[in-house]
From TrEMBL:
GO terms for molecular function: magnesium ion binding; phosphoglucosamine mutase activity; phosphomannomutase activity. Keywords: Isomerase, Magnesium, Metal-binding, Phosphoprotein. Residues 8-144, 167-265, 272-378 form the Alpha-D-phosphohexomutase alpha/beta/alpha domain. It comes from Flavobacterium amnicola. SUPFAM superfamilies: Phosphoglucomutase, C-terminal domain, Phosphoglucomutase, first 3 domains. It comes from the Bacteria. This is Phosphoglucosamine mutase. Residues 402-455 form the Alpha-D-phosphohexomutase C-terminal domain. The keyword Cell wall biogenesis/degradation does not apply. It is an enzyme of class 5 (isomerase).
Length: 464
């Protein structure tokens, strides 16, 4: 059982001992720290602050939700309660409500025993590292000051925001629901029994798509590992073929990651979700792109095809967003299926990805499998090495940097070495003595071989 405190929020497994897991006491403590942080940084002294809250369909969601809402009330903060929602929906709601922040109760792709508090600023964007660190300090010191009975916050329920989110997506200039309707697409949706099972089918139906639902009951009982990876998606791959569907859509429990299944039942590839959507967006609005440095080189190739400039950020959504703003990127995201389209908001959003992809497909005389085959072909290998706590991971990475000093190297997030036709990215975990090793090459065999080579080199340096 685990409790992980980080600058992006707090997450852990439900139950167990206080401080070791995500218990009710820990939920209250961290919600108190976030509310206190907002109050300490507010210029408004004569009126209450306002926070938007939404949750995914996890079994523990209602419990954590009630604890967090009532904690904020005790701090004198008003709450806009979206109830069952998605991460991008809450992100959109914060500025629309002119709120001072937002909390999303979700552990994203983690299994059902996990939950988390993800924290937003008044723009509906994830907090910076410095802000997150300050909240951790407040939580550690338990420097909370709750209000008296006449100053308690109030709760306003608003169940309309998933519909509002859909409307915002459909109003985007590059989304054309009318042309999509003429194609009479048939799509299978795996909502992993969370809120994506509600909002994705509804969006598709608004765009005139015939929907075949798979695991779309939002009861929190995930029918498979909720991370949308190939090894977890046998059921939808099979159903797409059986239904003779045009493609399949898979989202994670909080609907910020998006994966497609091609019409032949094969994975389109999470890495290629962003590539395909960016190809469409850049064809209409040329510009720059950003993804994190563990994402596929294919986005760089597509960006350069459209005469744009590509840059890679450190891993983490907040880092991608920061670089997107600095480079005026038209679109960006993460290779895990996260689409960030600033035209609507700076956050990963599966709905935006679905609507843009459908519009692009409707304008192509290709099947989804043919579209995937038209892109540069890269293959990734993801590995890790577990080390003893005594081993100095930073020293190991510094040694490797010196060895490959004549190659193109980035050290903004671990060590990334770019070779002519392949790359390797090595990062240390923030929570455990692990080095993660990501490689990419033109073939799977080459990616695997490159990974094995660096696993061997790292073990030699570490003498393990």
């Amino acid at each position: 059982m685990t409790l992980i405190k980080s600058i992006s929020g707090i997450r852990g497994t439900i139950g167990g001992k206080v401080g070791d897991n995500l218990t009710p006491v820990d939920a209250v403590k961290f919600a108190s720290a976030y509310g206190t942080f907002l109050k300490n940084n507010s210029n408004i002294k004569d009126q209450k602050l306002k926070v938007v809250i939404g949750r995914d369909a996890r079994i523990s969601g209602p419990m954590i939700h009630n604890l967090v809402v009532n904690t904020l009330i005790g701090l004198g903060i008003d709450v806009i309660d979206l109830g069952l929602s998605t991460t991008p929906t809450v992100e959109i709601a914060v500025p629309l409500e002119k709120a001072d922040g937002g909390i999303i109760l979700t552990a994203s792709h983690n299994p059902k025993q996990w939950n988390a508090l993800k924290l937003l600023n008044d723009k509906g964007e994830f907090l910076s590292g410095a802000e997150g660190a300050k909240i951790l300090e407040i939580a550690e010191a338990e420097a909370f000051d709750f209000v008296d009975v006449d100053s308690l916050g109030e709760v306003t329920e608003n169940n309309a925001y998933m519909d509002i989110h859909i409307d915002e997506v459909l109003e985007l200039p590059l989304v054309d629901a009318e042309i999509v309707k003429t194609k009479k697409f048939k799509v299978v949706v795996d909502g992993v029994n969370s809120s994506g099972g509600i909002i994705i089918p509804k969006l598709l139906e608004e765009m005139g798509v015939e929907v075949v639902k798979l695991y779309c009951e939002p009861n929190g009982h995930f029918p498979h590992n909720p991370e949308p990876l190939k090894e977890h998606l046998g059921d939808i791959c099979k159903l797409v073929v059986e239904e003779k569907a045009d493609f399949g859509i898979v989202v994670d429990p909080d609907v910020d990651r998006l994966a497609f299944i091609s019409n032949d039942g094969e994975m389109f590839g999470e890495e290629y979700t962003l590539v395909a959507v960016a190809d469409y967006v850049l064809s209409k609005t040329p510009g720059n792109t950003v993804s994190n440095m563990s994402s596929s080189r294919a986005l760089r190739d597509i960006t350069e095809k459209h005469n744009g400039s590509y840059q890679a950020s450190a891993v983490g959504e907040v880092n991608v967003v920061e670089l997107m703003k600095a480079t005026n990127a038209i679109i960006g995201g993460e290779g895990n299926g996260g689409i960030i389209y600033p035209e609507i908001h700076y956050g990963r959003d599966a709905l935006v990805g679905v609507a843009l992809f459908l519009t692009y497909l409707a304008n192509q005389d290709k099947t989804v499998a043919e579209l995937r085959a038209s892109y540069p072909q890269y293959y990734m290998s993801k590995n890790k090495i577990e080390l003893t706590p005594q081993i100095n991971v930073d020293a190991i990475l510094e040694s490797l940097t010196a060895t490959y000093k004549n190659e193109q190297i980035s050290t903004i997030d671990g060590v990334k070495i770019d070779f002519a036709t392949e790359w390797v990215h090595l990062r240390k975990s923030n929570t455990e003595p692990i080095i993660r090793i990501y490689t990419e090459a033109p073939t799977q065999a080459e990616a695997d071989t490159l990974a094995e080579r660096f696993v061997t080199e790292l073990k030699q340096i570490a003498s393990i």
